Each structure stands twice: as C-alpha cells, then as structure tokens.
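Pilot study result, target chain (264 residues):
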Amino acid sequence: MAHDREILREVWEGKLPVCFKLNPDEVVELQQPDPIYLMVPRLSYFPLVMDKVKKHFLKYITNDKQDQEMWLEYNGQPMKWHFPIGVLYDILVDTDNETLPWIVIVHYDKFPETQVYRFSNKEMVESYFMACLKESDVLKHRGQIVTSMQKRDHSQLWLGLQNDKFDQFWAVNRKLMEPSGDNEYFKYIPFRCYIDDSYKQKLVKPVTDEGKRKTLLDLLKETFPDKSSVKVKTHGMIPPLETPLQWMSEHLSYPDNFLHFSVI
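Predicted structure:
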C-alpha cells in the first residue's frame, strides 16, 4: 500500500516546547539556575534529549549527586521515561487549560524506584525500543520482518530515531509497514490505550471475518466493551472514529510501530 509521505513526515516532525527547571530544593548555589528550553520530538524518548539539560544543571547540584540518575516530574507525578514524549504529554497534560511551554521539573535526588524504571544509559532505551518493535512485528507479521532484517537495519532504525532523521528511519521502517505475502492487511493492529499511566491492549484485527475494514470505533468497542462511548487522543489530536485501523497503523504509529491512544 502506498504511504502518504506528507502525513508520515508531518507526524514525524511533531515537536513540543519544553521548559526544564531544576528542583529548587536540590540547588546548592545561592542563585537559582535559569531554566533551559528545548523543542523535543513527540516521537522520541526523554533520555535521548536530556544531554543538554544535564550539562546545564550539573554545576548547581552537589558533587555526590552529579552521577545519580536524573528523573523528571510534571505536576507532582514522576514521568515514565519508557513512554514516548508525546504519549506522556497526551496522558498527563490537560490541554484545555495548559499553556505552552510544558514545564517539567528535573531531579537528581530521591529516585522514585516504585514508579519509574531506572535507565543507566541510552543502550537501555535502545533495548526497550527494539523489544517493542519486535512485539509489534509479531502482531503484524508473526515476527517475520524484524527477524529477517540484518543488524545494520536495526541500527539504522535506532539511529534514525535517536538523531531525528526521517529518511534514515523510514528507509527501513517502510518494510514493517507493508502487509506480508499476499495479505492486504496486518494480522493484528499493535496499539496501547492509556488510562492515567497504565495501558490496555488486546488482539484486534484490522478487518472483520467477512473482510470488512474495521475502524477506530470498532477497536474502542472491543477494548472497552463496558463503556458506551470512548474518546481518545493521539499525537495531540482526536482522530475521527470512522478512521480505518489499517490506515491508522500505517500512518499514525509511533516509531515502535504501536498506535498510542490516550483515553480522554
């Protein structure tokens, strides 16, 4: 199926203005540090964009904390680094009342062990990303595409995401976005529906047994059978309920090849 490249690029180029502030209780200097402002990709992960932030605040904290793991908080809630940035924003921020930039508090002390996974380096983020990619490929193609790729393909996907390079990433990712063999559709649609900071996922096919295309409305009915109506947000927008699932999976998935929906 031919992809609408302009939509893919527009999704890829989605950015959020973020104001990072160091927790004032951790500042050792007399003067509070200035915040640092960054435009961060919605599709990325916070550990991949934090080098400048860490460098900016390092001299304002005690030496014994400088090697400790940094963590982020919004509105009193620790943020899970393994959720994509855009997903975190859609989950945590009430966009009806929020004004940009997104104000995020940086911590070096009192890591919230019970709420957030530790990450010691970017290789851990890469491992998590590749695990998600393999899971989505199992759902779509029974895992046939990822396992047939060479290591350089895996590296190209990761480096494309890490360095925010659309063409580098999609040169490989397009293979994952094509139905396998003679099939017109994926086997299942990889998706996660977030309620607060946990999510639900189910095995949902893109077509009915009679071959009729399923829509977002069908997915929500199957995922939340006890609810009469559910609205979701993805990439900061509320998609029409009549949008076909196959099309959504091909065009609106995050780099891990999952659709990420925030229930509103």
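One observation from the pilot: The chain has two domains: 14-107, 123-263. A full batch analysis is planned for the follow-on phase.
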